[in-house]
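Open question from group meeting: does this chain pack into something compact, or does most of it stay loose? Before anyone orders reagents, we agreed to write out a predicted structure and look at it together. Recording both the input and the output here so the notebook holds the full record.
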Amino acid sequence: MFTAKAKVCGLIANPIGHSMSIALHDCFNREMGEDIIYVPLQVKEDLKTAILGAYSLGIHGMNVTIPYKQDVMKYLIDIDEEARRIGAVNTLVRANGGYIGKNSDLPGLLMLLEMEGISLQNQDVVLLGAGGAAKAAAYLACQEGAKSLTIVNRSGLAAEMLKTELLSYFPEFSIAVCTLGDVEEKINQYLPHRGYLAIQATSVGMYPNSEDCIVSNPQFFEKCDVGVDIVYIPEETTFIKNFKLKGKKVCNGLGMLVYQGAISWQWWTGKILSKETKERAMETLQKILNQRMNKEE
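Structure tokens returned:
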């Protein structure tokens, strides 16, 4: 239970009603006995005013998610090197005069993959998306020694821009780009091999649009051996179901949520969360998600 002296942290997003971050941080704060309250902060417009207002109100730290991970960078007093290289921020840490931007998506995704026994090393990776979360995944693939990276996005221009950014840091890395239309109509030209590791890094398929799938071509799910979806509501997106129908290895984004949230919490508090604390938080979130989905049915 928090007191009148509690530090306030929160989540900036739009929309925000589906998020499990509030429940996650409540788990961390209760278990660790921290006098912190974590609140939803829906920002529909004027992000700059929201950031300045949060600082004036004394808000200690914030997570940032869709659609603001890139736009928020303009309103910060500093950005750490990794977040700057990724080109996206998902955590704000209070400092003298404003907030410092950090990115816990990259280490959070790495921890999820390690937990699931999935290695990026020497893998041909297909990345679906070119936004904030996709940028972290792309950077991680290059950093962890993937064999190649193919960026697939609705907008070919956004994919090309991400490729250019990555090559400025990894000039020898093999990076290709194509559009979702290319995957639907000319998949053998753009994904000529088999055994790809696919990372779905957009919000497509998220509840309540659970029937949506970013790719409809059945060959895609045959060509890929592993499917990772950062969406965690529902537990099994159509993207995940399509992989399971082919008998492929899959994982959703719940673990990434927990791990990136734990890293943000540690930046705000200076304390370390144990493996057991994170596991209990994941179990709690899974129960909440199951209850929520059962009610909707």
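Observations to bring back to the group:
The mean pLDDT is 95.
The first strand starts at residue 7 and ends at 13.
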